[in-house]
Specification:
CATH class of one domain: Alpha Beta
Number of strands: 7
CATH architecture of one domain: 2-Layer Sandwich
Largest sheet: 4 strands, mixed
CATH topology of one domain: GMP Synthetase, Chain A, domain 3
Strand content: 35-45%
Distance between the termini: 49 Å
């Protein structure tokens, strides 16, 4: 993957990818906002494609992302909460599996930050909350105390 960014004027930049180009107009939309939008859109594409590949349909998909950044530079994301809301013709278990598959396996942008960012999520499926503020337990960003683990006797 290759992207080239060139300065246009003032605080406007053009980003050219192998497929297209777009203007980044700072500070109207900051690069960090583009980054967060990219993270969310990565998961959103999974949420459309996975059901489609299973012969199911997702509609009314909205994913809200709320990121908390560190106070000190480089001001990395330290927490990210994703709120998934959608309708589908699948049951709640399948709907939750789609979200988890996106978060844990398929979404490369989320997986790029999960070692440094505590990530949580909620799911509202067909008008009902089926997951509320659950945390991803994988990745170094989560500080989950698993307690003492006793070794197996040999």
């Amino acid at each position: 993957m290759k992207v080239t960014v060139s300065h246009q004027e003032g605080m406007k930049f053009e980003a050219k990818t192998e497929k297209s180009s777009f203007i980044i107009d700072c500070p109207t939309i900051s690069p960090v906002e583009y980054f967060l939008a990219g993270i969310i859109t990565c998961s959103a594409t999974d949420m459309v494609l996975m059901p489609k590949n299973s012969g199911k349909t997702v509609s009314d998909l909205v994913i809200d992302g709320d990121a908390l950044r560190a106070e000190d530079h480089p001001r990395k994301f330290v927490q990210l909460h994703l709120d998934y809301q959608f309708n589908s013709d699948a049951d709640d278990t399948m709907a939750a599996r789609w979200v988890m598959a996106s978060l844990e396996t398929y979404c490369s942008t989320i997986n790029t930050i999960r070692d440094t960012t505590e990530i949580s999520f909620s799911i509202k499926h067909n008008g009902h909350v089926i997951r509320e503020n659950e945390k991803m337990i994988s990745g170094g960003g989560s500080k989950i105390d698993m307690g003492e683990i006793e070794a197996c006797l040999s």
